[in-house]
Amino acid sequence: MQDDLTKRALDYHMKDGVPGKVTVVPSKPCQTADDLGLAYTPGVAKPVLAIAENPEDAYKYTSKGNLVAVISNGTAILGLGDRGALASKPVMEGKGVLFKRFADIDVFDIELDTKDPDKIIDIVKTLSPTFGGVNLEDIKGPECFRIEQELIKSCNIPIFHDDQHGTAIIATAGLMNSCEIVGKKLEDIKIVVNGAGAAGISCAKMFVAAGVKRENLLMCDSKGVIYKGRTAGMTPEKEEFATDLPARTLAEALVDADVLMGLSVADCVTPEMLLSMAKDPVVFAMSNPNPEIAYELAMETRDDLIMATGRSDYPNQINNVLGFPFIFRGALDVRSVIISEGMKMAAAKALAALAKEPVPASVEKAYGGQKFSFGRNYIVPKPFDPRVIEWEAVAVAKAACEEGLAGKPITDWEGYRKSLVKRMEKYWN
Ligand SMILES: NC(=O)C1=CN([C@@H]2O[C@H](COP(=O)(O)OP(=O)(O)OC[C@H]3O[C@@H](n4cnc5c(N)ncnc54)[C@H](OP(=O)(O)O)[C@@H]3O)[C@@H](O)[C@H]2O)C=CC1
Ligand SMILES: CC(=O)C(=O)O
Ligand SMILES: [Mg+2]
């Protein structure tokens, strides 16, 4: 099975004699000498002068407004760890494909061969005029936190570290719905977040913002539970979640826990750990490509759990693919210079609400005729649901407008929704 995946995945990436997954396509004709004189010299001087006079014109005469930089240094590629900048390129090209396929956003992927946060900040800041937004990807914690914060301060376009916030948004949507399904309240649950890097820290923050009590949240890293007074491997971000409770290992933390959020590495959770959890446990084993506990093993271990992974090939995919394309679509369309906490929560709530709607036949067809309805095996919408853009991008754009963050506010929301449907027709038909 694994060998088959290796072969099929490598073949896919070199299919048709074209290495990789993306290419650049011109959006204007360039067939004649006249076209050449408009696209290039002398005509190109006219938009140059217009933009020099009025920088806003870059949104009129260049691709800036619909172009996102996907930037990595390869220090946390999925759950594969630090494999270097070059090896991160297939993932970054993949993110580009998903931006385009799900939200019609163009991407340049940029792999930076450096681990120096100051250098990354300087490079991204320097190249930011090219882009309408920056999606930081697979840059490990804790450096990722300062890199993102510094860039948010110094750039006038949205900067979004997908592994932090994309993951947190989808996990929060899934958590809200899972709790509803098993009849538990966010403020009552005991939750364990395994992994205290980019994804773990940001998810924990968003769970607390959604109503989870901080004192009911235990966080673990490679050294076990993060507790008050611990000195080894601590960071200010981890300190915020340090517990007073006596648990010191993941196994101890999980006793009677209602929820396990895995944002760490493959196969670090055992059946015994799952068996020690409370009734109707919620287990999101989100490590990619292989989860903290295999889907089949978890389902064999207990029959009362809600199980999710980051993968496409099992029920309940909790993966930031349900976030970044649609969140950037909304943010770019209203020209927001940041992606605020309110915009993120609006995205999570939109996804949670959409999962409760009847699922169109086109989605079931994309998943081999499977039937989906809100419940234990369908807690968030599918990425191939054409309604996700209508719900999520609109919610994000609306939140930006309500918070006064929109440089180009929208007032006709039904018109905007329809324009998104029209824009995406070419991908769905
Ligand atoms: N499904 C999804 O959408 C997403 C999933 N992820 C997954 O989350 C994981 C972490 O990614 P990211 O946060 O970006 O990476 P980081 O490198 O920033 O963080 C990794 C964290 O995992 C911890 N860790 C390593 N081994 C263990 C272990 N055995 N038990 C507990 N914790 C451990 C590290 O501990 P320490 O601090 O001690 O080094 C660190 O805190 C990856 O597997 C990734 O695929 C990430 C983003 C999105
Ligand atoms: C999905 C993703 O971004 C990750 O695993 O890093
Ligand atoms: Mg990632």
TrEMBL record:
Domain (Malic enzyme NAD-binding): residue spans on this chain: 164-401
SMART domains in the cross-refs: malic, Malic_M
Manner of cofactor binding, per the entry note: Divalent metal cations. Prefers magnesium or manganese.
Domain annotation Malic enzyme N-terminal: ranges: 19-152
CDD domains: NAD_bind_2_malic_enz
Cofactor(s) in the UniProt record: Mg(2+); Mn(2+)
Active-site residue list: 40 (proton donor), 95 (proton acceptor)
Gene Ontology molecular function terms on file: malic enzyme activity; metal ion binding; NAD binding; oxidoreductase activity, acting on the CH-OH group of donors, NAD or NADP as acceptor
Record-linked PROSITE patterns: MALIC_ENZYMES (PS00331)
Alphabetized UniProt keyword annotations: Metal-binding, Oxidoreductase
Cited InterPro entries: Aminoacid_DH-like_N_sf, Malate_Decarboxylase, Malic_enzyme_CS, Malic_N_dom, Malic_N_dom_sf, Malic_NAD-bd, Malic_NAD-bd_bact_type, Malic_OxRdtase
Domain of life: Bacteria
Binding site for (S)-malate: 288, 319
Pfam families, per the entry: malic, Malic_M
Chain residues that bind a divalent metal cation: 137-138, 163
PANTHER family named in the record: NADP-DEPENDENT MALIC ENZYME
The family this protein is said to belong to: Belongs to the malic enzymes family.
UniProt-recorded name of the protein: Malate dehydrogenase
Organism encoding this protein: Sphaerochaeta halotolerans
